[in-house]
Amino acid sequence: MPHDGDSTSYSAEQVAGLLGLTLAQVRSYVRCGVIEPERGAQGALRFSFQDLVFLRVVKGLATSRVPPRRMRLALQRLREQLPDGSPLSGVRLAAEGAHVVVRERDRIWSPESGQYWFDFETWQPGSEPVALPTPPGPEPALELTATADGWYALGSEIEESDAAEARAAYERALEIDPKHADAHVNLGCLEHEAGRLREAERHYRAALAIRPEDATAAFDLGVALEDLGRLAEARAAYQQALDAEPDSADAHYNLARVHDRLGDPAAAIRHLKAYRKLIQR
User: Fold this and answer.
1) What pTM does this model have?
2) Using an 8 Å Cβ cutoff, are 188 and 171 in contact?
């Protein structure tokens, strides 16, 4: 059943095969409102080519460093900001660090905050920060050094190439906004990778104090606590991650391991079964 001006439409099974997704993932995107395909005979999902292109972008975001919860929130906020009837598939999305952004011809903006971002494609480490062109309306474009979000975004961009500079950027973000949960999480990850487990723990706990439902912070805290040998606390952290994100296969797997080490084989088996069920969807 053609729609949106396309001459061809695709079934959920075809979309899954073309994009390398599972059928459960495709249906999950529909249930969450990420994509709104047409319905064919007997209510069967029918996807346009535009839907296919958009889901390919969403798959790319899902395999980047963007946490699933943040991706869903960004898409929900974006849908609220679009004119009625405008499809999400008409928007050019990209990942900047752990954030979803909208890329337009001459500007980048965050659907979560509505703020404009520094364009990192034109910036190199060591160069002077340059603000984006001022957008229409009363709100000025963000300058790189003006906000916690700007420093956080810089840290996310350069983390893989220069961990020391990324750490400095996250610390600057926290100087401006001590309650910047994402900066705490990323700084915690850097400290964890450097073997400074107690510092990592401190940042993960700070993020959770600000945002208790942050599954990423809770899971990473569990890993740090497990590495510190504090298994009972690690179990509690993994459970917090699972409460925030019930379909987290990784949280189930780590809980199975921790329960086994704590001498609770029944709980270990229960979480291992849940893990296997999730990865086989």
Assistant:
1) 0.53
2) no
